[in-house]
Design goal:
Number of strands: 8
CATH topology: Rossmann fold
CATH class: Alpha Beta
Radius of gyration: 19 Å
Oligomer: single chain
Strand content: 5-15%
Shape: globular
Distance between the termini: 41 Å
Largest sheet: 4 strands, mixed
Number of domains: 1
Strand order of the largest sheet: 3-4-6-7
Structural class: alpha/beta
Amino acid sequence: MEHGAKRFLVLLAEHPEMELVGGFSETPGRGWHHRLGNLWGRRGLFALPVLLQEGFGWLRRFLHSPVDVVRFERRLKRAMRKVQTVPDIHAPEVLAQVRLLAPDIGAIYGAPVLKPDLFEIPRLGTLGIHHGRVPDYRGKKTTFWEIFNGERVAGVTIQRVNKGIDTGEIVRRGEVEIRNRGYSAVQRDVEALGLSLFEEAILDLYHGRATFTLQGPRPAGTRLYQQPGPMDLLRLWFRTFSRRLGLKQR
C-alpha cells in the first residue's frame, strides 16, 4: 500500500465525524513480498525503482522524526484491522460483504477501475481521488506527466466515480506549483493537498452541501496517460538535473 493510501486510511479510521465500517484492498496479501509481486505483475522492471522510492521515502521520514514514524505505524496497524485483502474486489462474495456493511459513502484511493456493481452500492455514491487536472490529465501517473510536459502546476481532483476513467463529476479540486522541483517533492505536496480535499469532499457529500461540476470532453491533442517508461523517467531526471545545475551556475 502506498504511503498516501496509508495516511488516508488512518484519517478515515480516526476522524471524529466519520466511521470506517470496512475496507478492501485488491492484493494477494500483505507484506513486502506481496507488494513486490503485485508491482512486478503490473509494471515489470519499473517495480524496482518504485520500491526504492518508497523505501527512501520511509527512510527520509524516519530520519526526520523517528518517533512520529513509529506512532504512525501503530495507528496504521489499528486501522488495518478493518481492511481485508482480496484477490478480486468485484467477486460476488466481496460485493455481498460491502452490501452488508451498508456504507453511506464509498471512498477509493489508488484502486483499480471500479465497476457499477461496486461503486453504486454506497447510499450517497463513491468518491475517488485523482492526482491530476481533469479533463487535460486523465489516466495513470498524471503528476509525472504534468511535470514532464512542463506544466506550471500539478492538480488534484476529487470526483464522484462513474463508468469512465477519470470522467466523474468534480467535487473538489486544487493545484500545487511545480516550479523547479523534482517529482518526489511535487508528489508530496500533491498527496498532502489531496488528503485535505478528500476529507472536505466526504464531509460535504455526507452533510448534503457538496456541489458537482461536470467535466468537459478531453481537449484535442491530449491523451489518456499510461505508466511512464524507463526512457521517460530518464528524460525527466536529466531535465531536472540539468536545470538544477544551471541554477547553481548562475
